[in-house]
Structures are given as C-alpha cells and as structure tokens.
Amino acid sequence: MELKDRIKYAKRALDGIALGDCFGETFFVSDEIARQRIKDREILNEPWSFTDDTVMAIGIYQILEKYGKIDQNELAKVFAENYALDWHRGYGGTAHSILRSIGEGKDWREAASGAFDGMGSMGNGGAMRAAPIGAYFADDMDKVLYYARASAEVTHAHIEGIVGAMAVAVASALILNKKLGLYSGEGDVFLRDVADKLPESDTKYKILSAVPIKKDSSIDFVVSVLGNGMMLTAQDTVPFCLWCAAFYYASVEEALWMAVSALGDRDTICAIVGGMVSLYADELPQQWLSYMEHPEDSMFFK
User: Fold this and answer.
1) 123: helix, strand or coil
2) Residue 215 to residue 206: CA distance in whole angstroms
3) Are 112 and 98 in contact (CB under 8 A)?
4) Fewest beta carbons within 10 Å, which of 11, 44, 47, 277?
5) How far, in Å, are 139, 179, 189, 266 from residue 183 at the CA level?
6) What percent of the chain has pLDDT over 90?
7) Alpha-carbon separation of residue 87 from 95, 100, 176 (angstroms)
8) What is the mean pLDDT of the segment spanning 111-121?
9) Which pLDDT tens digit goes with each residue over 7-33?
10) How far apart are CA 190 and CA 209, in angstroms?
C-alpha cells in the first residue's frame, strides 16, 4: 500500500470515529427519550461536539502521519498535550490521573501501570482510538497487532484494555480489505477471524460468544450477552461493537443506529463502530457531517 493511501484510510477512520462519537454523544438523554428518538430516527439538527474519544484518536492519527508507526513516547506526549488543551471532553477518572501525570513528567509506563492498584486499566479507551491503526497497516496484520498493542499500552497496562484495542484494529483492517476486495468474511466468519488474531483474554472469548448471535436478534438479547459499555471495560464494550460491524458494515447510518440502540456508553460505542465501518463506505453521510465538529477544524489537529 502506498503511503498516501495509508494516510487517506487512517484519516477516514478518524473521521468515522469523530462522526460516531458526535452522534452518540447527542443521545446522552434519558433512556426513554433516547429510545423514542432511535425509533423515530430523529437526529438533532444542531452542532454535535466530539469527546475525548476523538481527541485521543487525533493523537493516533498525528503520530502515524508523522512517524509511520506508533512511537509510544511521542504518543504519550501528544495525548498529554491534547488533554491539557481541553480536559473537559469527557475523560474518565483514570484517564485524568494518567494524562495529568504524564503531563507533569512521569514516565507513561509508570503512570499506566499504576492504575487500579497496579493492575492497569482494562477500560475501552484503547479500543476507541484504534481504527486508524488497522486502516494504516491493513496490508500487514502483524503490524496491525503490534502497533495496536503499543498504542494501548501508553494508557492501558491491563491485558483486556490492550486486547480491546487489538480487536478493533484487526476488525478495521479486515473491513478495509473487504472494501478493497481482499477479504470476504462477514457475520460470524468475521467475528471468528478477528478473535483468531487475539491473545487469550476475556475480551477474546466474549467476542467468540457473539458468533452465534444472529443479525435479527433483539437488541435487548444482544446486550444481555455482549454488554453495552456500561462497565466501561473493553470486554463489556468491544464485543458488541464488533457484532455491529460484522452485520452492518455496509451502511454507516444503519451501523450507528444499531450501535446507539444499545444505549450504555453511547459515544464510545458509536465512535468504535464509526471508525470501523467508515472504512467500507464510499462516503460518510453528508447531513450528519454538516452537524458534527470536525477533527481538522479543532485546536487538537496540528
């Protein structure tokens, strides 16, 4: 793959993350109101803002564009700098602590490994920003896995948080390869193909538990098996996102409506799904683009 194509696809994944993030964030209303809006396919015709999900994905994109790989020291620096620019973007409590520590000069290894009494974070934050890595290295799965792990380790020292990022990066690479005519899997085959690339972990086996769930299953059943991000962990978030991508990759709008219908961690689930399925789309929905905050227009895009 030529460098210009790697950058193009990584940027498309970033835009997909931002679109999903912005879209999902507009559904942080009561469950009753959210369900009615989802039923009516009602979107807000007012500016949509993105959260920390997109800010951190911008950091991934910037590092890939500058270095052609994930340089962990530089990524940690960018994460901390962008956090300092505006820390009111929905960062979780652990992220606040880690990114402030890095900004104050602590080594990212120490900051990440110290979370949760030394266990490290198993949160979904590594996964939410991983799609550009799968897009950039789509022609080399070993690099997808290696650099997805590297990107997660900067903030997530727990294996589950790391595997969540690896899973999303692999899925993104497969979807792009499907668009390019180099891969044909979908549905249960796609889910198995992603899981086969992952280290042993709860997240891997939760993804495998998605394999028998049919596309026409009720959303309540799907959530009961796979979760919806309410626990903010990789294993409670990523399997559902991959299930959405497995069956709804062909339409960004349909994928995001399905993603948000799980309620739960709406912005992050939609960010993850948006990053993946955007890589199959010819273009992103124009009306939605007209409402969203765009990464390249923000203070974080240098």
Assistant:
1) strand
2) 17
3) yes
4) 47
5) 11, 8, 11, 29
6) 96
7) 10, 10, 32
8) 85
9) 999 999 999 999 999 999 999 999 999
10) 13
- The tens digit of pLDDT for each residue in 185-239 reads 999 999 999 999 999 999 999 999 999 999 999 999 999 999 999 999 999 999 9
Looking at residue 7, its amino acid is I
Total residues belonging to the chain = 302
Residue 262 in this model has a pLDDT that exceeds 90: yes
Whole-angstrom distance, CA of residue 33 vs CA of residue 49: 20
As to burial, measured by CB atoms within 10 angstroms (0-12 exposed, 13-18 middle, 19+ buried), residue 301 is middle
**For residue 69, which amino acid is it?**
K
Residue 170 near residue 145, CB atoms below 8 Å: yes
Q: Strand runs (DSSP E) across 180-229, as ranges? A: none
SS3 state of residue 194 = helix
Instruction: Quote the pLDDT of residue 115.
Output: 83
Task: Give the residue from 14, 18, 58 showing the smallest Cα distance to 299.
Answer: 58
Name the token pair of 239: 């399997």
> Which amino acid appears at position 275 of this protein?
G
- What pLDDT was estimated at residue 120? 85
Per the structure block, which two tokens stand in for 281? 């789309």
* 19 vs 34: CA distance, rounded Å: 18
> Beta-carbon neighbour count of residue 257 at 10 Å?
17
d(CA 51, CA 276): 18
Report, in this order, helix, strand and coil percent for the chain, each rounded to 5.
Answer: 65, 0, 35
* Selection from 149, 147, 179 nearest residue 162 by Cα: 149
For 230, phi then psi, to 5°, come to -60, -30
Q: Which residues contact 90 (CB under 8 A, 6 or more apart)?
A: 25, 51, 52, 53, 267
Tokens of 296: 């390249």
Are 280 and 175 contacting, i.e. CB atoms less than 8 angstroms apart? yes
